[in-house]
Amino acid sequence: MSCSRTLALIAASTIGLIMTAPTAGQTTGRKYPEGMAPPPVKWKGLVAGIDNLDDAVKARLGEHTGPLDWYSSRKHEFKVPGSDLTDNIHMRGDTMIDTIEAVTPPEGCETVAAVRAKLGEPEHVTILSKQRIISYAGKGFRFVANNADGKIVGVACFPPKRHVPEGEPKVCDSSKQKQGPLPPVSNAKPWEGLKVGFSVVPLGLDEKMLPTLKASEREYKIHDVLQARCCYLSYQGTSVALVGADIFGMLGVDLAKLRAKLAEEGHPNVVVAMSHTHAAPDTIGVYGFYPKEYVQSVKQALYQSVKDAAKAAKPVAQVKVVSVDLPLDGARVAEISRNCRNPGLVNPQLAVLTFHGADGKVLGTIVHYACHPETLDAEKHKMFSADYVGPLRDYVDKALGGTTVFLNGALGGMVSGDSPGRRPVDIKLLGEKLAKYVVEYAEKAQPTTEHTLRFVHRPIQICPTNIKFKAMAALKGGKAWLTDGRIPTELNYIRIGSAELITIPGELLPEIGFDIQARMTGYPRMIVCLANDELGYIVPGYDFNEKDYEEGMSVGAAMGPMIRLAAYQLAEQGAK
User: Which pLDDT does position 4 carry in this prediction?
Assistant: First the structure.
């Protein structure tokens, strides 16, 4: 049997199995290190990875809801007296505690100074505009503290696993970057010559398309219509098309002909940003089936979305921008997002751009936030959906007017919904919770006084060392996808007034995203993931463990450092 045929069989038969294997890289299923003593700090007498959440413990902790299924764990929410927030416990199986994400700090750890007295110097600190994330991962803790008073407002407890090794930088500080609603801008000059157009095009997933999907999906119901939404900008000879699409993922090789055709027709700078909804057909083929007819329908919809948005372009008087860090109370953005690989390590930034016509009305909105759209358990409920992104867009459309385009951020490893469960109702709860923040801060947005539109393309090549990606290359035609044994892909830098966007060809882990944003100088600063490619998880080199889940779905250990360096260079170039 030929090597290429062998690799193809590996891809078809094993990739899907590995994708659904136990998530060893996440806290779910991680064991407390054998022989390691319990930590000097406990949360209400409990240690994650050692203790059980039995009925006696539940009664002691007070009023609670659950358990509800949450991915490969089960979740309880315990009400915090005098607060609308909850202390959350995720369990492995019926009783073993995997992760605690709490608003209530452990006794004796109410301030940064008290935590240091108990646990010593942290492994790493990420400093944001109003809060900081203090990591003691090797001891099983991350704390979130207010910068102003040092008060602990959140703690994540999990089986210990050192995250940032000795010798790596201990601080990532973006506190000096612009953040939060800016002071009012008076007498902002109209942005003469800028045009923007928006479009909404269904991706073609309907009852007629269902029989062409893999067997297990042919009985799914369509919960809501999957869409491609495009924001098309043109100014002084430069055009940029930003497409936010309800797509699980597509490879750059599958988008290449589409983008080449659009370039020939006068649209050279096209970014297809995939939301990564898990309640959509697998348009890559990682689960062993490639839905050719649906992929073709998606490509046609993406093409049409760019053409329609370009045709609909109208003059823009003002572009208003705002960027805020949402509160990390409870070591998560409560009821919106959490990190189940490295609990407590969440980028809470929400960025919003609104485009206004001469009459002041909103023509459309760009929303940027980092969170996996996998709120819905699509397999259990047998539904296709845009997940929380759909209700978010609908809510913002209605509240602000115009068309809303959603762009996902550094969602990798695994930044997912902090929903009670994975039911259809949870889609609406999460989407509208985030949408209310969008509307609240959009009303505080200020006009950007910089009038510029830039697009910088940065091609790179990555050598795949993961056998699954090599197998996928065989399925994709081998040499037709690879260049000298490497995967060609890209990053892009986009400047819209003061706003900066750097696009990433996969699922960037938040720690790399923090590092890149700290190098960016615009406002807002956005990392747009799954843009023009989906090459899996992009893991920091220092945290790469080939036995873990996310690493198993990564091109290889070199990708994280390469992406980081290329993004640094783009950020530096954009600042000039």
Answer: 38
Whose tokens are 């909105």? That residue is: 365
In this predicted structure, what is the pLDDT of residue 12? 43
- The answer to whether 356 and 395 are in contact (CB under 8 A) is no
Q: What's the order of all strands across the beta sheet hosting 453-462?
A: 453-462, 487-496, 499-503, 525-528
Task: Confirm if 550 and 537 have CB atoms less than 8 A apart.
Answer: yes
The 8-class DSSP code of residue 554 comes to B
Global pTM reads 0.94
* Residues lower than pLDDT 70 in the chain: 1-29, 472-480
The amino acid sitting at 108 is G
B/e letters for 44-58, b = 16+ CB within 10 Å, e = fewer, are eebbbbbbebeeebb
Cα 139 to Cα 123: distance, rounded to the nearest angstrom = 10
- Sheet with 152-157: strands ordered across: 64-70, 73-79, 86-92, 96-102, 152-157, 141-146, 131-136, 124-127, 171-173
Considering only CA atoms, which of 402, 197, 403 is closest in space to residue 306?
197
User: pLDDT value at position 11?
Assistant: 44
Secondary structure of residue 272 in the 3-state scheme: strand
Cα separation of the two ends of the chain: 55
How many other β-carbons are positioned within 10 Å of the β-carbon of residue 63?
A: 11
495: which 2 tokens? 């400047």
Residues 150, 113: contact at Cβ < 8 Å? yes
Q: What CA dihedral angle connects 390, 357, 178 and 128, to 10 degrees? A: -10
**Residue 455 to residue 146: CA distance in whole angstroms:** 37
For residue 130, the Cα-to-chain-centroid distance in whole angstroms is 21
Q: Among residues 158, 118, 153, which one has the least CA distance to residue 138?
A: 158
Alpha-carbon distance of 134 to 202, in angstroms, equals 43
SS3 of 206-219: the string is CCCCHHHCCHHHCC
Burial letters for 363-389: b for 16+ Cβ neighbours within 10 Å, e otherwise? bbbbbbbbbbbbbbbbeeeebbbbbbb
Cβ atoms of 231 and 272 within 8 Å: the answer is no
How far is CA 233 from each of CA 144, 202, 361, 568, 570, rounded to the nearest angstrom?
39, 21, 17, 25, 20
Spatial neighbors of 219 by CB under 8 A, at least 6 apart, are 210, 382
How would you classify the pairing of strands 499-503 and 525-528?
parallel
Rounded CA-CA distance 228/205 in Å is: 12
One-character DSSP codes across 456-520: EEEEEEE----HHHHHHHHHTTGGGT-BTTBEEEEEEEEEETTEEEEE-SSEE-HHHHHHHHHH-
Asked whether the beta carbons of 320 and 448 are under 8 A apart, the reply is: yes
pLDDT tens per residue across span 504-548: 999 999 999 999 999 999 999 999 999 999 999 999 999 998 888
252-264 vs 292-311: helix axis angle to the nearest 10? 30
C-alpha 137/C-alpha 157 separation (Å) is 9
Residues 368, 351: contact at Cβ < 8 Å? yes
pLDDT at 71: 75
